[in-house]
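Design job #97: recover the sequence.
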């Protein structure tokens, strides 16, 4: 597997982005990702009970359609908590793009990210769609990856290339996310494109595993968003033999998707709003995997712990208290904690409960005055 720290679109994929006026100062805010041929899709959404109009629409489309060709995403407006008008706006976006591309509207995913509770400016979308379609190209990914950003300070992108059955298969991932990040996905959009030939069932299986080990293992502030979406499109253009569940090709592909998701997830934490530290928390010796993850997330979501890390204060009592409150099985006499040098940017927290063999790793950041400033001024 060859890994590239940039977005390289697979065969038959194109992209583009324009500034249509949803954001201020003529910033890119409407992105389009397009497969020239129908693609299979695997999708994961936030578990938040309040879900944005694009997610509602996507769920309906998934019931109707097995193949997809496009993702259109706007930033600056989440189109969430907008009721029936918001759903109508998402549907209209879908219809406008379908007419421009000459494909079925059910073959299109709509995504939004930004401020919750404001009506989407559909008139601006109408003007932007023809322009974004006209400029579709392979190199358009460089604009599209920027157009999905909100409070991000850098683009999140990664590409892996594999050789499967004599054919080169590409997996390209782009994402956004910097705040309002908690397990069961973050306030994030992640789009993964691949030209592998694979069944929908195996594609979903690979994504399920990857999300559980990546986007469900990060937290910045313990706040879950309403628009979180991960979509994988696989269009089969690489020409490989269909992947078999029991073969090595599936394992290599699954490993590739895992790598893409994990690295993108880490980038989100590294770009956490106002953060000065990247924290890896490993809990070992737990009774079971569930306890290990509960304990690790309890540390990662502890505001007291996160403030201590920002202040470079080695107060291990914050860790002990968080694990004790997590609900995981803990015995004081067995409990061991090790924390790396807090003056460095990358911090490792190792906890050993010494009562079992299970472990978990999660990623988090410190909590800073800058985080408060950013979110106090947002919207």
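Job complete. Output follows.
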């Amino acid at each position: 597997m060859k890994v590239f720290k940039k977005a390289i679109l697979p065969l038959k994929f194109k992209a583009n982005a324009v500034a249509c006026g949803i954001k201020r100062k003529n910033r890119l805010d409407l992105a389009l990702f397009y497969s020239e041929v129908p693609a299979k899709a695997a999708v994961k959404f936030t578990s938040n009970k309040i879900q944005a109009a694009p997610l509602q629409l996507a769920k309906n489309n998934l019931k109707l359609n097995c193949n997809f060709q496009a993702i259109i995403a706007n930033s600056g407006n989440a189109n969430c908590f907008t009721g029936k008008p918001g759903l109508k706006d998402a549907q209209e976006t879908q219809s406008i793009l379908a007419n421009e591309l000459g494909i079925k509207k059910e073959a299109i995913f709509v995504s939004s990210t930004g401020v919750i509770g404001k009506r989407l400016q559909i008139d601006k979308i109408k003007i932007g769609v023809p322009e974004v379609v006209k400029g579709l190209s392979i190199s358009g990914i460089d604009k599209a990856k920027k157009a999905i950003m909100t409070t991000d300070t850098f683009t999140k992108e990664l590409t892996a290339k594999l050789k499967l059955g004599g054919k080169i298969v590409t997996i390209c991932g782009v994402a956004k996310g910097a705040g309002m990040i908690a397990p069961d996905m973050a306030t994030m959009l992640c789009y993964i494109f691949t030209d592998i030939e694979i069944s929908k069932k195996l594609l979903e299986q690979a994504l399920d595993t990857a999300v559980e080990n990546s986007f469900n293992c990060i937290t910045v502030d313990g706040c879950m968003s309403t628009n979180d979406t991960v979509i994988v499109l696989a269009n089969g253009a690489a020409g490989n033999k269909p992947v078999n569940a029991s073969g090595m090709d599936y394992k290599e592909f699954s490993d590739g998707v895992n790598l893409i998701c994990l690295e993108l997830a880490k980038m989100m934490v590294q770009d956490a709003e106002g953060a000065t530290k990247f924290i890896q928390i490993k809990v070992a010796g737990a009774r079971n995997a569930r306890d290990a993850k509960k304990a690790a997330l309890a540390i990662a979501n502890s505001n007291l712990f996160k403030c201590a890390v920002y202040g470079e204060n080695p107060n291990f009592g914050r860790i002990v208290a968080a694990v004790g409150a997590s609900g995981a099985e803990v015995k004081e006499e067995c409990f061991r904690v090790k924390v790396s040098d807090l003056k460095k940017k990358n911090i490792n927290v190792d906890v050993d409960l010494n009562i079992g063999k299970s472990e978990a790793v999660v990623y988090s950041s410190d909590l800073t005055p800058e985080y408060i400033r950013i979110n106090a001024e947002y919207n």
